[in-house]
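Lecture 7 notes: from sequence to structure.
We start with the chain below.
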Amino acid sequence: EGKYYYPTISGVGRSINFYPIYPETPEDSVVTIAYGLGKYIVDGAQALRFCPKYPKKTLQLSTPEITLRDTQKYIYALDLNPERFIPSTDDGVNLAKLTIREVEKHSGFKHVASTFDYQNNIVRDGLQEDGKKLITFSNILLYNTFPLAEIIQHLMQISQKEMGNPVEIEFAVNLDVEKNEPAHFYFLQVRPIVENKEIVHVDIEKINKEETIIMSHSALGNGLIDNLYDVVFVKPKSFNPAKNMEIARELEKINEKFIRENKNYILIGPGRWGSSDPWLGIPVKWAQISAARLIIESGLENYRIDPSQGTHFFQNLTSFRVGYLTINPYINDGYYDVDFLMQEESKFEDEYIKHVCFQKPCITMIDGKTNTGIVFKPKT
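Predicted C-alpha cells for the same chain:
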C-alpha cells in the first residue's frame, strides 16, 4: 500500500487447542490471525484467536466492551522507502509500526474492519462513516467472504495425518487484489508439535485421590508444572460473597509480594474469577492475580455458580499459558482436599484467605487432550 507492504492476514494455526471453550474440543484446532505482518503474533500482541470449526463464535468479539479492549491496536508493515532502508540480519529493522488510524484508508482495510458506534454502543460490521475503526475480520469469519476457516481446517487435517503428530502451520493471505483477480492464500510453513514436557497424559483412574489436592475434569491448558510451592485459597467455611470486593483487594496485596519475589502460585476460590458481579465470584482484575500460574474455580455447597472457564481472562491465560481448572466437588465433579490445606501452617491468614507455602512443589499435570488436571500434594 504505497510506502508500505503487508499482507491482509498473517496467521498461525495449531491442530490441537489446549484452551477450548465449549462446544470446542482440543481436536478442533485453534488459529491466531492479525492484520499486517506476522511479527505482531510472534511478539505476543493481542491478535484474534478463533476455532476454525466455529469461526462465528469468537470470544474477543462477544461484547462491544471486549471487542474494544481485546482486538488489534496496531500493525507491522515493511517500510518500502529506500532512503530508510538499513542492511541488517535483524528482520525487524526495516519494519514500520502503524496505528489503525494510519491504515484505515488503505484499500485492504475494508476486508478486516468493523466500526464501533458510540451513540448506540454497538459494533457494526464493515467500514461505517462515523465511529472508531476496529480490526475484527468479521466479514471473513461471520460472512465467509473468503473461506479462511475451511482452508485452514483442510490444511491442518492433511498436515497432521502426513506427519503423524499435531502440527503448527504459518500462513498469509492477500485479499487486496485487482477486480476479478483471485485472492491469494500462502501456506508458509508446517512443523510438528513434538511430544515433550508440554504434552502429558493423565489417566485419572490410576491416580490415588489421597495423593492429590485437586482433581478436575474441566481443565484448560497443558503440560507439567513443577515449580509451584505456594497455594493461596479462599477459605470455603468463612466465605461470604458480600465481602468479595474486600477479598479481591487482599488478594492483590498477596499477588504484589509474589511479583516482587518473582514467584508464582496456585490460586483457588469459589465462583467465577474476574466476574464484574461480585455476587457471582471474586471481582479481581488480571493485574491483581497476575502471578498465579494455576487458577482454580471451585463450587461451594450453597454457592453453585456456572463456571466461567476463564473467559474473563482468556487472552491472559492463553498468552501466559496459565492453567485453569474448574471443580464442583459438591456434585461429585472433581475433588478438592481443602482439609489438607486448612491443617497446614499458614504463611498468611485472615478471616477469608489463607496462604500456605510448602517445602516441596505441588506437582501439577494438565492433559490438554482430555481436559484433565491434577494438583498433587507435595512429596514428604
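Points to note: The chain has a mean pLDDT of 90. The two ends are 64 Å apart (CA to CA).
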